[in-house]
UniProtKB/TrEMBL annotation:
InterPro entries: TLC-dom, TLCD. The chain crosses the membrane at residues 6-22, 42-61, 81-100, 121-142, 148-169. The keyword Hydrolase does not apply. Keywords: Membrane, Transmembrane, Transmembrane helix. Its main location: membrane. GO terms for cellular component: endoplasmic reticulum; membrane. It is a multi-pass membrane protein. Residues 33-181 form the TLC domain. It comes from Bugula neritina (Brown bryozoan). Coiled coil: none annotated. This is FAM57A.
């Protein structure tokens, strides 16, 4: 149990730390919202790349028997991965706050959170409801079976880096076209 808690804590520290590091390195981006949004996208892309690599490694080591073969590091990665969902919800909220400006920050916290959830309700369901469902399902209820299939599911993250790069480039092009003219 100590190993699992350590991995969970490491994930809870790693993702916000990478976010802060990336955000601090984007000092040339003057607009706070753009800097935060790009930082969120970069951390998402990094996490997705690691997830895909882990999925490929898991599939490689469990390809002989896709139901019963175990890959010992899969559960470790899942404990590390679960905090990403909560970090991402927090980071998206931070970017949302900055995007709305000072006047919005004068409203109550409850009102700000309500407006954020109204605007990003589907993403928040994904980030706040799925981890308590996926975590126990993947770690406990499957009883050590199907590591190969979990590896396959991790491959779905392969689209995220491309989506992130697309959004970053669109933001950069928008800034070049409309703010530099």
């Amino acid at each position: 149990m100590l190993v699992e808690l350590s991995l969970f804590t490491l994930g809870a520290i790693t993702f916000p730390s990478v976010f802060r590091l990336v955000s601090s390195r984007l000092y040339m981006v003057r607009d706070d919202y753009c800097r935060l949004d790009i930082s969120v996208k970069i951390v998402s892309a990094i996490q997705a790349i690691v997830c895909v690599l882990f999925g490929m490694i898991t599939m490689h080591y469990t390809k002989d028997d896709i139901v019963f073969t175990r890959f010992y590091l899969l559960d470790c990665y899942i404990y590390f991965w679960i905090p990403y969902f909560y970090y991402d919800a927090w980071a998206l909220y931070q970017a949302f706050l900055v995007s709305k400006g000072e006047k919005f920050r004068e409203s109550t916290t409850k009102e700000r959170v309500k407006r954020f959830f109204r605007k990003k309700w589907l993403m928040m369901i994904h980030h706040l409801v799925l981890p308590p469902i996926y975590g126990p399902s993947i770690l406990l209820f499957r009883q050590g079976k199907g590591d190969y299939l979990i590896g396959c599911a991790f491959l779905m993250e392969a689209t995220i880096p491309f989506i992130s790069v697309r959004n970053i480039l669109l933001r950069a092009i928008y800034k070049l076209l409309f703010l530099k003219v």
